[in-house]
Amino acid sequence: MYLFHSDESFRSTYTRANVILADGRPILAMLNRQRRRQGQGRLSSTHRVGSTDWVMQAMELGEVRKVCVLGGRAQSNAAMAARGRAAAPGTEILSIPADPWSDDDFDKVCEQLRDFAPDLLLIGMGMPLQERVSDELAGQLRIPVVALVGGAIDQLSGVQRNAPRWLGRLGGEWLWRLATQPRRLAYRYLVEPFALAKLLRDKRGAA
Fold first, then answer.
1. What is the pTM of this model?
2. pLDDT 10s per residue in the chain (207 long)?
3. Which domains does the chain have, with CATH numbers?
4. 14 Cβ contact partners less than 8 Å away, ≥ 6 residues apart
5. Helices 8-15 and 129-138 meet at what angle, rounded to 10?
């Protein structure tokens, strides 16, 4: 949300998206606040959908014959691809690790995708890198469905443990993630909320 309000190219990606999922409890809370102002009903926690909730099921759809998993380190990418092959034996899965990522890799990845022609491209490279890469790929290729899945590759591969579902329903998943990945997420959870509040306050003042 902070990047959406502070980064024009990031905001442009989601402004053009066909589907946006509320994947976090704070996002759902902000959405419900907006719905309340508009006289609409409140959405429950069942409307919160993270990438780990749907990715594996998508691979099993009959219409999805080819899937590319782009992102993550080699170990986690390969493990997720293997899990996908086990769950959907009829689905062909291309594994392309992308951590670390270099812009020099772009042309090679673009060629791999052009040759493979996936029905579904899953990009898990972290924000805002995955948004930038997806926009650049969209300028070169025509892929039916491109989904940005953040850390889902590491989570679905088993490299990272998911928070218990009951904790997510209580709105405490962020504490689990902060405790298990403090170096990566401390700034996002402990600093960005205050930066976002100031940014929104300044925008309201300017309006």
1. 0.88
2. 899 999 999 999 999 999 999 888 888 888 999 999 999 999 988 888 889 989 999 999 999 999 999 999 999 999 999 999 999 999 999 999 999 999 999 999 999 999 999 999 999 998 999 999 999 999 999 999 999 999 999 999 988 877 777 777 777 777 888 888 888 889 888 888 899 889 888 888 877
3. 52-162 (3.40.50.2300)
4. 4, 20, 131
5. 60
